[in-house]
Specification:
With about 425 residues, the chain is an alpha+beta fold. The chain is built from 15 helices and 21 strands.
């Protein structure tokens, strides 16, 4: 049976988008204490389907899905541009589809302005009114105000009208940057994208016997199962190694591995891969904030996801993406593989030299490529030691020479030397763990 806390969360989840929520009202409707109602509302806010908006209250909002994470809410826009809300506060939870810069004649401006848009414009009151009537929110730049009639219209239509002291170009750049950052987040694959859900997960209970493990193992053709208690909280994992030599009547509770490593739905796949490799784990239970079982992920799931990520086109590029995209592979006079890379402005620190983080990315990428030519599959860097010998300035062309020193079944060791104009500028020693595909 679900707890009062879980019942309140489900109640909030079932409310219509835009519905106002209060602690007192929920406490009365569900016959719970105001403290319990407050804690549940705060958790709903953390989960992203409730938002507290100043001078409006707590509103049920549309929870962002993976596919539309790049869309910003008008409330987020207010924070990005340090804005002041002049009217239409009750619409701050809505998302914008695109923004339009009003640097043209009024008729032309309205052609591009529609429902769900954000019109960025100066002190043109007629444009403010027409945009609201077309279903768009308005962002007024330069710190200007608008007419009371426009503010009243915004309140009536529940469409925000925001004022900021920044100019139009700066505002557009800030919003664009925020959308770009959201695109990068969208590309990060997390556990909830690949897990086998609880409905399809086979698990054992603590009072089951080893005989039950044999039945499930024979039926499902694998030997690793999470163990849960009466509340569905994960208490252990049981594998073929655990049951070896045990009597079939023995309780699972007595032979399981207690306090197993778990992940939650928002853990990145990359972090899960590191855990699995370093701990030698084939299956990880996925739990919620109460440590209740939500599903499992296997090493095969993680490997497939990592391979899929590598094939995806990058929409929002991180610094690592920019660095790696500039890699050029060439052969020297001895026929050995050498990588060249130009030091662009994005790769430098405040004094115009290559940053330590970028240098680390360069040697790690070169070393990884060299190892993959010996052994196909995924790898995880376990240890890297870097020596900076001299600074490398902007617009320099650097040459990276990786040398594989040792490759085993599970480990690899690479020495990487970095040159600029024939002079060595840095060295690195990498130790990695290898995963067979």
């Amino acid at each position: 049976m679900s707890t009062k806390h879980e019942q309140i969360l489900q109640y909030i989840d079932d409310l219509e988008v835009g519905y106002k929520i209060s602690v007192r009202q929920i406490a009365k409707d569900l016959n719970v204490s105001e403290g319990t109602a407050y804690r549940a509302i705060k958790e709903a806010e953390n989960k992203g389907y409730v938002s507290s908006i100043e001078r409006v209250g707590t509103i049920r909002i549309e929870k962002k899905k993976k596919e539309n994470i790049e869309k910003l809410t008008f409330s987020e826009v207010v924070n990005i541009v340090d804005g002041t809300v002049l009217g239409g506060r009750e619409g701050l939870h809505k998302t914008l589809n695109k923004f339009v810069i009003g640097a043209m004649k009024l008729e032309a401006m309205m052609k591009y302005t529609g429902a769900g848009n954000l019109l960025i414009v100066g002190n043109r009151t007629n444009a403010h009114q027409l945009a609201l009537e077309a279903g768009a929110a308005v962002l007024i730049t330069g710190g200007f105000d608008t007419d009371e009639m426009v503010k009243n219209l915004a309140d009536e239509l529940k469409l925000p009208i925001i004022s900021t002291s920044y100019d139009t170009f700066t505002v557009a750049t800030m919003i664009n940057r925020a959308i770009y950052d959201q695109l990068i987040k969208k590309e990060i694959v997390v556990v909830e994208d690949i897990l086998t859900p609880i409905e399809d997960t086979v698990y054992l209970r603590m009072n089951d016997s080893v005989e039950m493990w044999y039945e499930l193992s024979g039926e499902k053709k694998h030997s690793r199962f999470p163990v849960v208690d009466a509340s569905f909280k994960v208490q252990g994992m049981v594998t073929g190694k655990d049951v070896l030599g045990s009597d079939r009547s023995t309780l699972i509770e007595r032979i399981m591995t207690k306090n197993p490593i778990t992940v939650n739905e928002k853990t990145s796949v990359a972090a899960s891969a590191h855990m699995m490799i370093w701990e030698g784990i084939e299956v990880l239970p996925v739990v919620d904030e109460y440590h209740k079982l939500k599903g499992i992920i296997s090493r095969q799931d993680v490997l497939k996801a990592l391979q899929m990520i590598q094939r995806q086109p990058q929409v929002g590029q991180t610094i690592d993406d920019i660095v790696i995209s500039g890699f050029i592979e060439v052969e020297d006079q001895k026929g050995e593989e050498v990588y060249q890379c130009e030091v662009t402005p994005q790769m430098t620190n405040h004094i115009g030299n290559i940053s330590y983080g970028v240098f680390t990315t360069i040697v790690t990428e070169a070393g990884s490529r060299a190892l993959r030519s010996y052994k196909k599959g995924e790898l995880v860097v376990e240890n890297i030691t870097i020596y900076f010998i001299r600074p490398v300035q902007i617009d320099s062309l650097i040459e990276v020479r990786p040398k594989v020193l040792e490759v085993g079944r599970k480990f690899g060791k690479v020495d990487v030397s970095v040159f600029n104009e024939g002079v060595i500028v840095g060295k690195a020693m990498m130790m990695v763990q290898l995963i067979d595909r």
